[in-house]
Give the backbone structure.
Amino acid sequence: MKNKITILIIASIATLIALSGIQAYLIENTYQLKKRAFIQETDDAISDIDNHPELDSLMDILGEDLRVNLGDYENDRISKKTVIQKLRTVSDNINTPYMQRYQKELDSINLGYKIRYKRELVSIVVFTGEKNDTIFPSSSMQNATFLGEDFKDKDSHVVKNSRTFTEFDFITQEKDSVFLNTFDVELKTRDVILITDWKSIVFRRMATLLICSVLLFLFVVGLLYYSIKKLINQKKITEIKTDFINNITHELKTPLATLSVASKSLKNKEIRNSEEAFDNTLAIVDRQNTRLQKLIDQVLTNSLSANDIVLSKDLVTDTDYFNDLIADFKLATQQHELEVENNICSQEVVLRIDTFHFTTAIMNILENAVKYGNSPTKISIETFVKGSTYVIKIMDNGPGINQKDQQQIFDKFFRVSHGNVHNVKGLGLGLYYTSQIVKAHDGEIIVESEVHKGTTFIIQIPIH
Ligand code: ADP
């Protein structure tokens, strides 16, 4: 049974982990889809911005400048590097009006979030005759940004790749002659944007899904926890009940076997003829009968709950009551090596208790101290007044009860087992009954114990 439950718990946890993994995978997929959809949405929204005539004319200034510079380059008047430097100077000059216009267009679309924009130079290649001459990129010219903000971020992305192929004329002077030459220029650029808080926007769009997933996950974990807890509890109850049946069967066996032998003896003529033997056998029958009666009473009475117990309360003086109780207890345990320390409260306090039930409740604790205690047993009974409560402390020098068992000690049928073995007879009802009686008196009982040191039961009942 224990193994089965362990397997069940492991299987449930493994299933939960697998389900969580699948859920995480689905969330990740959804996240990627939402991210792509959001980026696409942004790209579509801004795709037409740079077609604005004002931005076009600013780009024309740049194009014209490039044409003149490339002409100079072809005439060997300037280097490649200077072409790019000049391009940068012009782009720096037009950058502010370009970006202001760009921003205005962005504002008019009303995206609802901020984006950063830049235009990068990919390449400038000049074709003259059969020769290709790459002006950009080159090892000495790395930075490709020529319009917009010069940002670097792994989350930026290209929204547009442009390629223009233009035929340029330029004038060449050789000796005294002037020629009109043409060359083709291939100009490649790309537009890059960065949506600054795209992560929070995508997460916001996934909020419902995320919240539902987390809630569902917590619900499943809660359900699993509850089911396993119930299962373990159920198992514990079954074990306790089996234990109780074993205990009671064991307790009943001895008196029944003795009664069977006694009744057989009574049929024996020799015993019937001897008055002494007959009386002895009858006494045995009587004792065993009383024992059986006591056992049944114990089960019937001790298993009552606080609500079922009807109290008949009397007024008693604590000193008289406890001194009598201790005297009775000492008498009943004469054959044990026992030392009882009496520290009963000296100021006579009047208690309102059901003496029959309360005495049995206290006796259960005292008898347990003897039953489970070491020999010689030392018990200390102390009582005192604390505010409006009367405190009864019963301490013993017994084996003690470990922390885990202390929590269940007052449960019905609970017995501390050593492995699976109970060394001392009992039904696990004594402390349950005691706690119910204390409860019926509107009081409370707690246990304090340390293994190998001893146990202390503390009862508090209100003083009326
Ligand atoms: P029972 O004595 O019939 O088993 P109880 O309800 O009286 O049932 O006690 C429950 C368990 O508490 C016992 O099985 C015993 O192991 C433990 N116990 C009770 N009193 C003491 C004590 N004074 N010292 C050590 N263990 C105790």
